[in-house]
Amino acid sequence: MTAPASRYAAKPWVALLDEAQRAPIDPADSLVHAFRRSVAEAPDRTCLAYFDGRLSYREVDELSDSVAGHLAARGLEPGDRVAVLLQNSPLFVLALLGAWKAGATVVPVNPMYKSGEVAHVLRDGEVAALICSDRAWETYLRQTAADSPVRTVLTGCELDFQTRDDARVLTFERLPRASDADDLATVARAGHKAPGGREAAPDDIALISYTSGTSGAPKGATNTHRNIMVNAERQRTGLRLPEAPVYYALAPLFHITGMVCQLGACLNSAGTLVLTYRFEAGVVLEAFAEHRPHYTVGPSTAFMALAAHPDVTRDHFASFVNISSGGAPVPPALVEKFRAGFGPYIRNGYGLTECTAPCASVPPQLEAPVDPASGTLAVGVPGPDTVVRIVDDQGAEVPFGEQGEILVRGPQVVPGYWRRPEATAETFPDGELRTGDIGFMDEQGWLYVVDRKKDMINASGFKVWPREVEDVLYTHPAVREAAVVGVPDGYRGETVKAYISLRPGADADAGTLAAYCKDRLAAYKYPRQVEILPELPKTASGKILRRELRSRPQDSQ
User: Fold this and answer.
1) CATH number at residue 532
2) CA terminus-to-terminus distance, the chain
3) Could you tell me the maximum CA-CA distance found in the chain, to the nearest angstrom?
4) Does any domain span residue 132?
5) Average pLDDT for consecutive 10-residue bins of the chain (557 residues)?
6) Is residue 528 in some structural domain?
7) Is 465 domain-assigned?
8) How many domains does the chain divide into?
9) CA 206 to CA 295: how far, in whole Å?
10) 520: domain range?
11) Beta-bridge partner residues of 397
12) Which pTM does this prediction carry?
């Protein structure tokens, strides 16, 4: 018997796209190819703006060539992995392009990670070279790297390539040069030539992006150069930005959203990327006023913080042609409040690391509808080369309007996880991504995300897997049982809460246990709330019932 035709394969959302957004795309082989095209088109245009510093496309090309030549001279081979652990500064871009020009695969690492988290990435990714800040190297990464496959280290001070030294974010001083690491800025200025014969093919792995994804063990999504370029090209052709667009890097570049929707789209458009190290609302607003950006993307919490700043005015946002939000759901009330106060309409978006950032977004000529039944704001519509389906627990498609798991197929979906064939087979059956998110699609093709499957916590756009936090709690001598859940938070969307039962005779309070986790986990992962109970609820077989803990009244502490 022939299987019934997929209702979603008809792609009703294509009717909502304009001609440019529907058009087939022919992206460059890699972002390096696209960048070199931009260098040829506009060599003297500002590529990177960092406080009062400016680097042209020609300069970024030469500096990153030199990094590539140095890495190759140090023995880096095509396909080797290079971990980059840096904030939003020119050093990140030079490290990324330099590694790619040397034929390497880049492993972006969150600078908030603690030593144990970085150690897992270095070992699992079999990382050959590490590029990080001088402070991270001196404080903890030297010891972490010693017990890893890393054999080449470059460190940099993120005061380089600017002189303003804004004390609100650049709160550190330049350290003496390490004797056991090469200095990144010195290497970049040394004039080395990039090695020849190392051009990336479209299906080569560009990034190994570590994510908890739809199961608990941290694993690396293998974003190919084609994956990146498909979405970077869709951003270029679909956002209706002016020629030589100015992008503000609100999302961190180590995150797939910042990597693709800001850096990738910018280099692919011969645009200017404005960097300010990390998020600080006052610094961001001043950058808006100074650089007059046309586009930015970030989590809803960032826009809440900007709207609450005492110095914010409508003029700060007057230059924007498009603003997107990704990484966490955007409440409809925030969108309307922001528009009323400052002018721009914040356009939702939806994606995962496993689909190289966006797989659905709100076209710039439209506004997202709100589902009248649930009050949920649509996250957008897929692109013309993407198919999003909604299925039930048995994998059968559900009708438009009914909830189920969101599945994605398209050229932005990664081929799988780094050296995890079983996890790949489970999450990407027949190449289709099982997102683990629950949502529905209306008959026009608008996608709505209403919940996350299982237990993943989404705190300010960062994914937190409960077991990782629980494993840390279980190392505390006073803890007998631990369960971690996400609870509603007006600012972060969700925050991490831990329920604990103590060992007999043990003495530990909530503050002590939260501080214990804070010392061992990235800032967004440690539990902001801890509640100690005599016993945690369990099934008959002894499994702790997280769903009962999530439903507990939150004023019972």
Assistant:
1) 3.30.300.30
2) 58
3) 72
4) no
5) 75 96 94 98 98 98 98 98 98 98 97 92 97 97 96 98 98 96 98 96 97 64 98 95 97 94 98 97 98 94 88 97 83 87 95 95 96 87 97 95 96 97 96 93 94 76 81 88 89 91 90 95 94 81 74 68
6) yes
7) yes
8) 1
9) 25
10) 457-550
11) 391
12) 0.86
